[in-house]
Specification:
The chain is α/β, with parallel strands linked by helices. Helices cover about 35% and strands about 20% of the residues. Strands 2-3-1-4-5-6 form a six-stranded mixed β-sheet, sandwiched between helices. Strands 8-9-7-10-11-12 form a six-stranded mixed β-sheet, with helices on both faces. Helix 11 crosses helix 12. It is elongated and about 90 Å long. GTPase that plays an essential role in the late steps of ribosome biogenesis. It comes from Dactylococcopsis salina (strain PCC 8305).
Length: about 450
């Protein structure tokens, strides 16, 4: 496979850039809402046209004469998108006409070293669209192309023009097919975007003390020591009762989807806040999805400590997030980079264990030894549980089926004992382990007895 060319979508706020991105990609990944400034960071999405695959990067609305809130950071993100793009699409609003902001962006775009195309959006009517687009000749940016992000009209002609800027396939560098997807999950303002920037070494996500700065799920491909990673920065997830329908609602849905499509989740916790009920719910969501996970305690540098603080803190975490006892805990500071690079080693370990497969012979050796040390419980009627054999039926997460005479004869204590034996003997650090207790039907039991008698 080849690394994909990048096409940057730029323009002032609320001209329909994200709608156009969703049209190009055939998805609804980019958040579309009738409110300016929804998109803030760079959002990459795969697209395909004719015989070429490429990436479309959605950017926030550019405003040059205002430095309030996130606008300077949004401009910086747009500039970084242009720096890596093979072509840019400048989106304007055909219904509103030319504005002073369009002229400013046009003047700035002429100074950039990237081919660009002028897309006049919201031209839903073909005849009226030509009239709406004609007025944009005044910008002096070449032929204005009327398009409709909602209906898709004119987008084919636009993409035909963009494809002319793509380098030949033979000139593209090779891509790494063993990419690891890493989702950064946590409550608002725990330092997820700061951690992403620390891991990459660049200002990839906007960092602000204002809660809810990140809205989209921000994808970023990087390479570390020869391994390719896709890091996914997500919006902070608040309690459900505090979420109203709108931009935040869509942002949190993107965050939950990021958990489902990742290989490993980094659950970020604020060291100053300790662990909250919401952190525990997010940990439960990761465990339910069966994802490998690492608990990241961020802002560790800001906590007053003595020689025993780290041990007490870890014990408190283990006690509260007891269902993720298999997860590694790392104490880091995204602000000064303390122990941030060690996260990559932990990711490698967790992903390896998450994808691991163990032979049936090894699994049954563990079962035999476990049963020899601690026999299955016996009911009041004198009926004892029996484990006939076990086998791994899937990975990601590792799932082992245990075939027994009756699952009801194995209480929670014994099931936890068997789970602990598998982990002590086989590892599986950093990943959940699924045990499926399957009872044999009477016919299968009789057949197994007959087979044993025949062997004798």
């Amino acid at each position: 496979m080849k690394k994909l060319p990048i096409v940057a979508i730029i323009g002032r706020p609320n001209v329909g850039k994200s709608t156009l991105v969703n049209r190009f990609t055939g998805s609804r990944t980019a958040i579309v809402h009738d409110e300016p400034g929804i998109t803030r960071d760079r959002l990459y999405q795969p697209s395909f046209w004719r015989d070429r695959d490429f990436l479309v990067v959605d950017t926030g609305g550019i405003v040059f004469d205002d430095d309030s809130e996130f606008l300077p950071e949004i401009r910086q993100q747009a500039m970084m998108a242009l720096a890596e793009a093979v072509a840019a699409i400048f989106v304007v609003d055909g219904q509103e006409g030319i504005t002073a902001a369009d002229e400013e962006i046009g003047n700035w775009l002429r100074q950039q070293n990237v081919p660009y195309f002028l897309a006049v959006n919201k031209c839903e009517s073909s005849e009226q669209g030509l009239i709406q687009a004609a007025q944009f000749w005044e910008l002096g940016l070449g032929e204005p192309l009327p398009v409709s992000g909602i209906h898709g009209s004119g987008t084919g002609d636009l993409l035909d023009a963009v494809l002319s800027c793509f380098p030949p396939l033979d000139d593209l560098p090779d891509a790494d097919e063993t990419e690891i997807n890493v989702a950064i999950i946590g409550r608002p303002n725990v330092g997820k975007s700061s951690l992403l920037n620390a891991l990459t070494g660049v200002s990839r996500s906007i960092v602000s003390p204002i809660s809810g700065t990140t809205r989209d799920a921000i994808d970023l491909q990087i390479e570390h020591q020869g391994q390719s990673y896709r890091l996914i920065d997500t919006a902070g997830i608040r309690k459900k009762k505090n979420i109203s329908y709108g931009a935040e609602f869509f942002s949190i849905n993107r965050a939950f989807k990021a958990i489902r499509r990742c290989d490993v989740s980094l659950l970020v916790i604020d060291a100053l806040d300790s662990i909250t009920d919401q952190d525990m719910k997010l940990a439960g969501r990761i465990e339910e999805e069966g994802k490998a996970a690492i608990i990241i305690v961020n802002k560790w540098d800001a906590l007053e400590k003595d020689s025993t603080t780290i041990y007490k803190y870890e014990k408190m975490l283990r006690d509260r997030v007891y269902f993720m006892y298999w997860s590694e805990i790392l104490f880091v500071s995204a602000l000064n980079g303390q122990r941030v690079k060690t996260i990559f080693d932990s990711i490698q370990t967790a992903v390896k264990e998450h994808r691991r497969r163990v032979s049936t012979a090894v699994i049954n050796e563990v079962i035999q030894e476990a049963v020899a040390w601690y026999s299955p419980p016996t009911s009041r009627q004198g009926k004892q549980g029996r484990i006939y054999y076990g086998t791994q039926v899937s990975s990601q997460p590792p799932t082992i089926a245990l075939f027994v005479n009756d699952p009801k004869r194995f209480n929670d204590t014994y099931r936890r004992y068997i789970d602990r034996q598998f982990r002590e003997q086989l590892g599986f650090q950093g990943t959940p382990l699924r045990l499926i207790w399957r009872g044999k039907r009477p016919r299968e039991v009789e057949e197994s007895k007959l087979n044993r008698a025949t062997r004798v």
